[in-house]
Amino acid sequence: MKKIGLLSDTHGYVDTKIINFFKDVDEIWHAGDIGDISVYDQLKNYKPVRAVYGNIDNHKLRIELPEFQIFSIENVKVVLTHIGGYPGRYPKEIRQLLLREKPKLFICGHSHILKVIFDKRLNLLHINPGAAGKYGFHPVRTAVRFTIDNDVIKDLEIWETKR
User: Fold this and answer.
1) Cα 9–12–16 angle (5° rounding)?
2) Cys bridge to 131: 52, 65, 112, 139, which one at CB 3.0-4.6 A?
3) What is the pLDDT along the chain (163 residues), one digit of tens a residue?
4) What is the H or E stretch that residue 43 is in?
5) What is the DSSP letter of 55?
6) CA distance 148 to 71
7) Given the DSSP bridges, would you call strands 68-73 and 76-81 parallel, antiparallel or unpaired?
8) Domains detected in the chain
9) Interstrand relation of 49-51 and 27-30 (parallel, antiparallel or unpaired)
């Protein structure tokens, strides 16, 4: 069983309340637009991190991180990226990747809008944790935590606060 803390679009800022929300997680996953290498280092110094770079991330983060993370944890295959769309509206290359990889869990950021949707066509759970940072058009900052137990994704909880 693994407990996961998930965030995206920090844009150079991580609230200490999110760190507290992640205190019992085993890993932190970041779906891009980290904003500054110091944020990535802060998270890595706290918990193991899996992350991807986003469209605002500079060369330092792009050297350190991939565009896609494809991995299995417990018995769940995961695809993690920054720009991924959402069920019924995936960009062509993302749809092809999902058809090829057949993940049970697809995570992306970019939209700054928290979404948790089961994609019936591709038989996967899509999670966009919204935006955790202070910069952008979003009225609330959000993050997510959940548990993966064998092949079951459960106990999803949302952290949110007004900007």
Assistant:
1) 90
2) 112
3) 999 999 999 999 999 999 999 999 999 999 999 999 999 999 999 999 999 999 999 999 999 999 999 999 999 999 999 999 999 999 999 999 999 999 999 999 999 999 999 999 999 999 999 999 998 888 999 999 999 999 999 999 999 998 7
4) helix 37-46
5) T
6) 13
7) antiparallel
8) 2-162 (3.60.21.10)
9) parallel
